[in-house]
Amino acid sequence: MATRLKNVDEIVSANNSKTTVLDYSPAAAHTGSIDLSRGNNFKVAAITAITLSFSNMSGREGQSGNIWLTGGSNGVSLDAMVKSAGDITADHWISYYVVSSTEVVISVSGEVA
Q1: Torsions phi, psi of 29, nearest 5?
Q2: Model pTM?
Q3: What is the pLDDT of residues 27-50, one digit of tens each?
Q4: CATH code, domain carrying 50
Q5: DSSP annotation string for the chain
Q6: What pLDDT is attached to residue 5?
Q7: Domain that holds residue 95
């Protein structure tokens, strides 16, 4: 029988530092500024044009999570630190991975109706 993780609250990295998974429900980030100290999963409602950016990245290398973005048709640009594998033009589910304290990679789903 396979082992399954459920409700993991802590991640231990190779250098024995611990990162706590802070949330089970998305944190609101309606300005497009994702503060990684607030959790792993975020909800962004782009009421007007926004720039998707990340803060508090130092020490969070390897953190990943999800962003539910609505209103992308109002205009979403990416901060220079964000590398993307897709355009944000509507409602999208976005996964992210923190590569370093200065770089985040995102993967954008197809349009979600």
Answers
A1: -145, 65
A2: 0.76
A3: 788 889 999 998 899 999 999 999
A4: 2.60.120
A5: ------S--EEE-TTS-EEE---SSPEE-TTSEEEGGG-SEEEEE-SS-EEEEEE--TT-TT-EEEEEEE-GGG-EEE-TTEEESS---SSEEEEEEEEETTEEEEEEPSP--
A6: 45
A7: 27-108
